[in-house]
Amino acid sequence: MRCAPLLRIVATVLCAGPGVATQAAQSSDNQYPAHQYFAEGRYAAAEQEFTRELASGRSGAAIYYNRALARVNQQNYLGAKQDLDAHLALVTSLPALTLRAQVKLSLADGAGALADAEAALESAAHSSELLLVCARARLLLGRIDEARADLARILEREPQHIAALTARGDLALAQNEIAAAEIDYQKLAQIAPREPDAYYKLGLVEFRRLDFTAAIRSFEQAARLSPDSAQIERALGSAKYAAADFVGARENLQRAVKLNVGQATYARLLLYLVEQRLSSPALDVLGVPPGDGPDWTEQLVKFLRHEISEDSLFLTAQNMVPASERPGRLCEAHFYLGSARLIAGDLEAARYHLREADRSKQFAYTEHTLARAELRRLPVPVPTQPKRTRR
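Structure (tokenized):
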């Protein structure tokens, strides 16, 4: 499981683009109900109003733009892009061009987002918002140095720009530049002391650095500020597991599962290991895999349930598509197999698999750090003394 959340990977968060802020609908005749729906946060109802207007034969740039806003606020980015395309075919609009760039980021269209953002910068050369879109688009395209330059331009003008600081810290963490990431996250915590993400990301740095006491402290601060975050609870549970506080890890991982029942497989997997370490019945915490497909997390669940073999698990990891996923999945496979061997008392096999997880250098993966933590706790093997030949 990649961090980035101890989520998937930090770079993914960067590249996904910013959440598009709720905006008021542009005014046009007879739109009071839609405006009311926007004010109440009833975006589906607002979308229906704009769709009704278009179906009645009315057309206009404002209607397309307004429906795009309603769709963005429902995370219907493809529909929003279609409306913004229609809007921009009718009028030249800087807000619409900017919004479409953000929408394209959410659709992982880095080239399209960059084209729109650069076009918008011609009219708003000093826009930090657009430079941030450019940075995120360049990250999607793998243009790391140019993204850094965009973020530097923002922070030269606005040293306390929260989104740019966060993005630069995330980029540093994704590149395993721990010290640089920590500087930005610490500054973020000073600027926004009530922002849980600042402490959560400081915790990620400390976790990666194997300072689990500090990581737990930071994650606990984040949890106090955001008490219903499954992501933070899972991170806290992972840090406690790494620190061998299995009772505490159980509590946080159980909470993570409860808060995010539908997408809590990695929390369940680690909770299974926790229960095993505590000698508790554990199989039921994994749940039942939803199907027989090749989904990776399903394979991990089936392996721990003894429904597939070790060879089958590694074969799946080695054949992951895209190929870029393979090293991370192999890291995960070695960690879970090594943990299973450790719990079974086979220290030699456990050490081998945990070392393989560590050698993978998949720094952004939670399992990489957990494997390193386990290796630190394993007793050092005593070298076998060769027999002396009598002379």
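The CA atoms of residues 107 and 175 lie 23 Å apart. The chain has a mean pLDDT of 88.
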